[in-house]
Amino acid sequence: MASNSTESSTQGSADHNVFFGQPIIGVAILAIVLTTFFTGLRVWSRAVILRIFALEDWLLLLGWVGGLVRKTLVLMLTSCHSFVRPLSRRVTSCVS
Questions:
Q1: Can you tell me the distance from the alpha carbon of 22 to that of 27, in angstroms, rounded to the nearest whole number?
Q2: What is the pLDDT at residue 20?
Q3: What pLDDT shows up at residue 32?
Q4: Separation CA 2–CA 84 (nearest Å)
Q5: Hey, is 91 helix, strand or coil?
Q6: For residue 18, what is the DSSP state?
Q7: What angle in degrees, to the nearest 10, is found between the helix axes of 55-78 and 22-44?
Q8: How far is CA 13 from CA 4, 9, 10, 20, 83, in A?
Q9: Strand, helix or coil at 1?
Q10: Which residues of the chain have a pLDDT value below 70?
């Protein structure tokens, strides 16, 4: 029984250099595209069709900008090969 636990622990440590950021990048890009599309539809329908642009529309735009900034930061941080390198190496590799 002890040999199984050591085998599984060595298997897990062999995969420590795998980069898991690609699904995060895809999800962040999809979220940016979808939120931009639906926010644009709402703004267009309220401003152009109904010609009513109220406080909740401005708050929606403010929230959309905040979400866009957050998703952009997620993309920037995951593009630095995030989860496996020490922080000092990540920062220097992103700066250069």
A1: 9
A2: 60
A3: 94
A4: 28
A5: helix
A6: -
A7: 160
A8: 14, 6, 5, 15, 14
A9: coil
A10: 1-21, 80-96
